[in-house]
Design a protein that fits this description.
This protein is an alpha/beta fold. The protein is 29% helix and 16% strand. It is built from 13 helices and 12 strands. Helix 7 runs parallel beside helix 9. The longest helix has 15 residues. The termini are far apart. Bound molecules: iron/sulfur cluster. The site of iron/sulfur cluster has 10 residues, from loops.
Length: 364
């Protein structure tokens, strides 16, 4: 990251930047030792959100290393959703017809303990360079079905403003592209990084959509509100993906509050609720799908539809996202359907369809 020495730079400098910085915090030695295997970084302002009296504090669980990260279960994967299997050129994953992922950096403002790209952000030291991204840009230019490029990583908002501007301009030169989507935790973990200059660097021909990852209502601080206000008033679309995390947000009450505050405090539409992937070393964050469905049942109908995300599972091997439901269809017999309602009632519904002129002709 570069730029004038300001608040967010100090926030990074004063936070945890390496294993040794953990020694000044009340973190057990066995947990500190994890930093030798997986990167650690937590900005100072984010450390200040942790309730240090609670060893399972939801902010602390996501930010501080835990010895449980070294427990690898059978079936867990280094590349849980097959990013590498769908990589036609370096720094690109192209899984779906009209959109592709671009990794402009593997650096993050915080290394989230539950990250599903834990291994790639850990292994890759590669930062931003236009030369490194050239094969990706050439590939996008040769793929006319593409409409959206999703900047992910790593966290793209750790790039300097001039790097973001340069990258946006190169993407804008590809005529069939319509949108840049930016997947970022910066508004959560380093919200003061979102400045008018950053917003200006992102504004251009392409529709800009910023997808945040707030996982707990306590992450919605005054600084996070200001960051989201800047992004929204710039005219950017603002969405949020939450990861369903045991001990963080696997509670109906927490999830309801989070989804409502996302909309009412931040103006960010809850987009996906992700079932926790099969990433190695994050089993202490993984809930059952049944628990996720129970939480979704408590949201749908009870909260405004604007506040309700879609619960999805990313299939291992890169086979894409599956919407998990819940399913409200109980039975179906031809045009006769039976549905369960949001408040656990049961209602029959008869589908009434106009016969098409073709079928009327056939029957004379
Ligand atoms: S910011 Fe995103 S990519 Fe980086 S560690 Fe957190 S979840 Fe992973």
């Amino acid at each position: 990251m570069s730029g004038a020495n300001g608040r967010w730079q100090r926030d990074l400098q004063d936070g945890v930047r390496r294993a040794a910085d953990l020694r000044r915090l009340p973190v057990a030695e066995a947990d500190q030792a994890v930093a030798a295997t997986f990167k650690v970084r937590v900005p100072a302002s984010h450390l200040s959100l942790i309730d240090w009296q609670n060893p399972e504090d939801p902010i602390g669980r996501q930010a501080l290393p835990s010895a449980r990260e070294l427990e690898f279960l059978d079936g867990e994967l280094e590349d849980p959703i097959g990013d590498a299997l769908h990589s036609p050129v370096p720094r690109v994953t192209h899984r779906y017809p009209d959109r592709a992922l671009l990794y402009p950096t593997y650096v993050c403002s915080m290394y989230c303990r539950h990250c599903f790209r834990k291994e790639s952000v850990n292994d890759e030291e590669a930062g931003y360079s236009l030369a490194a991204l050239r094969p990706a840009l050439d590939y996008f230019a040769r793929a006319p079905a593409l409409r959206e490029i999703i900047l992910t990583g790593g966290d793209p908002l750790t790039l300097a403003d001039d790097q973001l501007r340069e990258l946006r301009r190169h993407l804008e030169d590809i005529p069939h592209l319509r949108m840049i989507r930016i997947h970022t935790r910066v508004p959560v973990t380093l919200p003061t990084r979102v400045t008018p200059e950053l917003v200006d660097a992102l504004r251009g021909r392409l529709m800009t959509c910023v997808v945040t990852q707030f996982n707990h209502p306590r992450e919605i601080t005054a600084e996070a509100r200001e960051a989201c206000r800047l992004l929204r008033t710039a005219g950017f679309m603002l969405l949020n993906q939450t990861v369903l995390l045991a001990g963080v947000n696997d509670s109906v009450e927490i999830m309801k509050e989070l989804c409502q505050e996302l909309v009412y405090a931040l103006g960010a539409k809850p987009y996906y609720l992700h079932h926790c992937d099969l990433t190695r070393g994050i089993s202490h964050f993984r809930t059952s799908i049944d628990r996720g469905l129970e939480i979704m049942r408590a949201l749908r109908g009870h909260l405004s539809g604007v506040c309700v995300p879609t619960y999805v599972l990313d299939l291992p091997g890169g086979d894409g996202k599956i919407p998990l439901g819940p399913n409200y269809v109980q039975t179906r017999d031809g045009n006769e359907w039976v549905f369960s309602t949001y408040d656990h009632g049961v209602r029959a519904y008869r589908e009434i369809l106009r016969r098409s002129p073709a079928s009327e002709d056939e029957q004379g």
